[in-house]
Design goal:
Elements (H helix, E strand, L loop, with lengths): L1 H12 L3 H13 L16 E3 L7 E2 H22 L7 H22 L1 H4 L3 H16 L15 H32 L9 H47 L5 H42 L4
Antiparallel strand pairs: 1-2
Helix pairs in contact: 1-2, 3-6, 4-6, 4-9, 6-9, 7-8, 7-9, 8-9
Length: 286
């Protein structure tokens, strides 16, 4: 045991946290067969064009699959649309109505929302499809778990709400409305205006991207941990440890349902915040 402790400490000192965890599980379970998740899941080896800006890896493949399926579903739905909808068309219309009524109109009002419904609907559906790949067999990782895609989506929202504000109020009017809230004594603006500037131009897009990526990364690690443990306990462990596999498998199935809920919830939060930011941008007084 002392030798193991020394090995683990050496691995940690060398910055090899994964090696330390492998040594720990080898000592705990008597085998190195259990492989806990690591950050390597989010930095897969290149499949094509390695080392270039066109690098194609596993997560890129997952994103392409999600995008193709999403486009295919809605293309077929639009192509076969009927006055009296079938079950598939009704399901798609339910999603579209949810975004229009429960997000766009709820936040912005019916008249103002009409212009932004296509954008918000596209945003919501895209995030759902990229998130839900975390529980799809053979894909098993969310397309939004690598920060690049959440950043692109956050920048899309950023451009939309800045553009909406400038078009509606003009550049000067937008800056005045955003940075100098009415009803505040003018000396307070010396402190308040920089804070509002950081919030409008930095924190809003940054928190959108980080919140989405962090939640999907956490969910993926949790699922991999429970199912990797189930695989080990059920197929490789001996004796009473096999019974633990039933517990970890049950937890994995429960976390799968929870991950589906989180995937939908994060799409909802991202989209409703996008609607709120656009609404704030076009208001003359906050």
């Amino acid at each position: 045991m002392l030798n193991l402790a020394a090995t683990v400490l050496t691995a940690v000192d060398d910055g090899n946290a994964e090696g330390a965890s492998q040594n720990f599980f080898q000592w705990l379970f008597g085998t190195s067969g259990f492989h806990p998740p690591s950050v390597k899941d989010f930095n897969p080896e290149a499949l094509l064009f390695g080392g270039t800006i066109l690098e194609f890896n596993r997560i890129t493949f997952v994103r392409v699959v999600a995008a193709v399926v999403m486009i295919g579903i809605f293309w077929l739905g639009a192509r076969r649309a009927k006055v009296v909808p079938g079950r598939g068309q009704a399901a798609l219309e339910l999603v579209l109505d949810f975004v229009r009524v429960q997000i766009a109109e709820e936040v912005m009002g019916a008249e103002r929302a009409r212009k932004y419904v296509p954008f918000l609907t596209t945003l919501f559906i895209a995030i759902v499809f990229f998130n839900i790949t975390s529980v799809v067999p053979l894909l098993n990782i969310p397309g939004t778990s690598l920060i690049g895609l959440p950043i692109v989506m956050a920048l899309w929202v950023y451009v939309m709400y800045l553009g909406a504000g400038v078009r509606k109020l003009g550049l000067g009017g937008f800056l005045k409305s955003s940075l100098f809230p009415p009803g505040v004594p003018w000396p307070i603006y010396l402190l308040l205006a920089p804070i509002e500037a950081i919030q409008v131009f930095v924190l809003r897009p940054a928190t959108l991207a980080l919140r989405l990526a962090a939640n999907m990364i956490a969910g993926h690690l949790l699922l991999v941990l429970t199912f990797a443990a189930s695989h080990y306990f059920l197929l490789e462990a001996t004796g009473a440890l096999k019974a633990v596999g039933a517990v970890s498998l049950t937890a994995g199935l429960a976390f799968t349902l929870f991950e589906i809920f989180v995937a939908l919830l994060q799409a909802y939060i991202f989209t409703i915040l996008a609607a709120a930011y656009i609404n704030l941008a076009v208001e003359e007084e906050h």
